[in-house]
Design the sequence.
């Protein structure tokens, strides 16, 4: 943001971990058919509904099967997709998109009305979309009022000028709007088809209509899902890969054995697997924009205690988690904003410009815990919720050890759930502390900072600070919104309040990404913000 938007990384983030099987090291025998690229994922697909999906696995699938106004390439450059071209008014408050002659998978034309309906459904309070706030984030006129139910969806600041012209009106200019138009929440939706499916919409491949380069061929929850080329896509001839498959495999040893047997083309590595395979052909490593942190439920009496939260933060050895537990290129998180993600108005990386906001200090941890015990009148027992991937399990167990070792007397119980269940428990506030992650939707600190505003749908822990809210609101929609430097300074100050002063959340680590990729496979586009792109993947004969 602030000039540039990169794309997202949510795909391999959703493959949270694959480890084990170090026995038969060596070049894998790649025998999968060139007609199909087969990817291992340890996170099951949650939703194919663009307004309901909230996780990286679902967003990756949606980007294959659906299309937006634009696409963001491997270098973070915005290029056209369903929009042939666009115009921006001199004051930055009106965007006009001119659509290509594209069709839905059933052969009907994709029109501006499809974008209007898709965006209105996103904003409609009855949809209960956790991503509806993005409309307000980019300052669409009346977005906040429509989302809250104060105004009807027809008052959202968008309109269909004609079948091929879609207009977006803003109350404040938005530097990163164009790049965000590639995000699934902003995809079009065919009203007639959607209404014909009723409650069954997006529950199976047969209950979906497609606008992207692929259509869903199969989807078996707990097993996997696949896509084949969409012959109705306007640029179908440019897509050479006939089929892309995702197989849900949580056992990492099994996954790596399948890769070595030639049955998988992409597998994520972690832990000892990274050391074992880092010199092999196909080994790939990257730093992601995904930030893992402890989400704290502030409605829990003990966790409302600031000294306890400070004790927890000081007690966690983030460097060891990244280097010795994960070993996949992950790095310790020194704030809620990742490294190599957003560039300041001064041209510097955010984290280079902002001092570290976290540190590992067992003596300070114990000091704050003793204060917390005095205030609470007893030792504390807390439950740590985490998803059932091997990486999350390893990190959760290490955090449990850190806390029980450094905070003498505290008891930490572990609660492992499938990711979908974890997210639902957090949404319902049925948790105490959760190991949670956020993948940036656009390359600006706001994508993290506005999560913790009072009333935000993503503010699962119900943190609330008038001082924090004031700073953030000034930056995103108030007096600093049009002043890049003041806006940036406000977001920096807000992060300090969130992480250092209030310890509202506890940053843990920034995702790395170590993978084995069949050397015959190319075209996977990795991004630090937005969604990783598998659309252009190709496997050579």
Sequence:
């Amino acid at each position: 943001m602030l000039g540039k938007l990169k794309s997202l990384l949510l795909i391999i983030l959703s493959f949270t971990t694959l480890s084990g099987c170090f026995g038969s090291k060596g070049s894998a025998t790649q025998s999968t058919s060139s007609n199909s690229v087969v990817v291992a994922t340890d996170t099951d697909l949650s939703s194919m509904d663009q307004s309901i999906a909230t996780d990286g696995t679902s967003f990756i699938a949606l980007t294959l099967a659906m299309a937006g106004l634009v696409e963001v390439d491997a270098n973070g450059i915005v290029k056209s997709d369903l929009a042939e071209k666009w115009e921006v008014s001199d004051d930055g408050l009106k965007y006009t998109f001119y659509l290509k002659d594209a069709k839905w998978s059933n052969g009907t034309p994709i029109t501006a009305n499809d974008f209007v309906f898709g965006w209105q459904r996103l904003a409609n309070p009855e949809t209960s979309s956790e991503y509806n706030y993005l409309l307000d984030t980019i300052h669409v006129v009346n977005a906040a009022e429509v989302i809250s139910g104060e105004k009807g969806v027809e008052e959202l600041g968008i309109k269909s000028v004609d079948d091929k012209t879609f207009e977006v009106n803003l109350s404040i200019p938005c530097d990163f709007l164009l790049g965000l138009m590639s995000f699934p929440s902003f995809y079009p939706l065919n009203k007639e088809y959607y209404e014909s499916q009723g409650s069954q919409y997006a529950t199976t491949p047969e209950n979906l209509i497609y606008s992207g380069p692929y259509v869903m061929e199969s989807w078996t929850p707990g097993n996997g899902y696949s896509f084949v080329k969409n012959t109705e896509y306007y640029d179908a001839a440019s897509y050479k890969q006939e089929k892309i498959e995702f197989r849900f495999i949580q056992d990492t040893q099994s996954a790596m054995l399948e890769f070595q047997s030639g049955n998988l083309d992409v597998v994520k590595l972690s832990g000892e697997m990274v050391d074992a395979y880092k010199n092999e052909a196909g080994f790939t490593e990257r730093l992601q924009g995904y930030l893992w942190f402890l989400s704290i439920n502030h409605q829990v009496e003990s966790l409302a205690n600031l000294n306890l939260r400070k004790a927890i933060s000081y007690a966690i050895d983030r460097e060891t988690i990244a280097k010795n537990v994960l070993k996949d290129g992950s790095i310790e998180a020194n704030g809620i904003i990742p490294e190599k993600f957003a560039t300041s108005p001064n041209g510097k990386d955010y984290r280079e410009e902002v001092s570290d906001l976290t540190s590992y200090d067992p003596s300070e941890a114990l000091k704050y815990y003793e204060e917390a015990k005095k205030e609470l009148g007893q030792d504390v027992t807390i439950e740590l919720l985490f998803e059932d991937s091997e990486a999350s399990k390893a990190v959760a167990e290490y955090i449990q050890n850190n806390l029980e070792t450094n905070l003498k007397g505290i008891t930490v119980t572990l609660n492992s759930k499938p990711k979908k269940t974890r997210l639902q428990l957090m949404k319902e506030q049925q948790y105490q502390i959760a190991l949670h992650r956020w993948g940036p939707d656009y390359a600006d600190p706001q994508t993290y900072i506005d999560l913790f505003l009072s009333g935000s749908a993503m503010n699962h822990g119900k943190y609330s600070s008038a001082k924090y809210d004031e700073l953030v609101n000034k930056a995103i929609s108030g007096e600093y919104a049009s002043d890049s430097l003041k806006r940036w300074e406000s977001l920096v100050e807000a992060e300090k309040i969130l992480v250092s002063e209030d310890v509202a959340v506890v940053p843990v680590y920034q995702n790395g990404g170590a993978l084995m990729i069949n050397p015959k496979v190319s075209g996977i586009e990795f991004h630090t913000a937005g969604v990783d792109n598998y659309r252009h993947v190709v496997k050579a004969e």
